[in-house]
Specification:
Structural class: mainly alpha
Largest sheet: none
Order of helices and strands: HHHHHHH
Number of helices: 7
Number of strands: 0
């Protein structure tokens, strides 16, 4: 009975780590996609300094490597690989919790920096056909907004992307809401989803650590600690 349960645990770990490996590949692909298609340095340089695309690339690589390590350790019943998998998962969970706490602590400061960046980016984009203007056009079209607070931020050089429908020079029908308010609303809408995702991820990591340690202890007792 015990052997059957442990075999079930072993193959459950293999399947779970394989799924994590696929998720890591997806995150890696998202990082590559963002690196190629989203250039936000001219619009929000503070956030761009964090280089989100590179962070996703690194996260994808870490997830794939750790999940492959867990898959191989469970499949081969290798005590060394299982212990390394346990320690790496523990370190990852600490990093995730630390990052979440820092974001909560400095939420107001980050919002202020984003506002300052938007104002500076808009000043640079006024009356210039630059990359910043292109990024503002994209953001204003996608978020249905205009300027930082409203269309008056652009002065006399309001871009076409601020117009709703056709841009009539006489009847100027500009988008009413500013992009700062739209971004705040977007972050607030996704805040709960992000928090739940972090909690679920931590629970999965704790379960993975428990499974790895259970399998590790069984292998140690059975004398198969370095079976290849």
């Amino acid at each position: 009975m015990a052997q059957g349960c442990l075999k079930c645990l072993k193959y459950t770990m293999c399947v779970a780590n394989f799924l994590c490996f696929m998720c890591g590949v997806a995150v890696l692909g998202l990082g590559v996609y963002m690196m190629v298609n989203f250039q936000m340095a001219a619009l929000i340089p503070t956030l761009a300094s964090f280089n989100i695309a590179n962070m996703l690339l690194i996260s994808g690589i870490v997830i794939t490597c750790v999940s492959f390590l867990g898959f191989l350790g469970a499949l081969k019943e290798n005590r060394c690989l299982l212990l390394t998998f346990f320690l790496l998962l523990f370190c990852l969970m600490l990093v995730e919790l630390t990052a979440a706490c820092l974001l909560l602590m400095y939420e107001t400061e980050i919002a202020r920096m984003v506002e300052e960046d938007l104002i500076k980016g808009l000043e640079k984009a006024k009356g210039k056909a630059t990359n910043a203007t292109t990024e503002w056009d994209l953001v204003q079209t996608q978020l249905d907004c205009c300027g930082v607070y409203n269309a008056s931020d652009w002065g006399d050089t309001v871009p076409q992307s601020c117009c709703q429908g056709s841009c009539d020079p006489i009847k100027r029908n500009y988008r009413e809401k500013g992009c700062l308010g739209k971004l705040k609303a977007l972050f607030e809408e996704n805040f709960l989803t992000t928090g739940i995702s972090v909690i679920v991820l931590c629970i999965i990591e704790v379960l993975g650590m428990c499974f790895a340690m259970t399998l590790f202890c069984h292998i140690s007792r059975s004398g198969l600690g370095y079976k290849l």
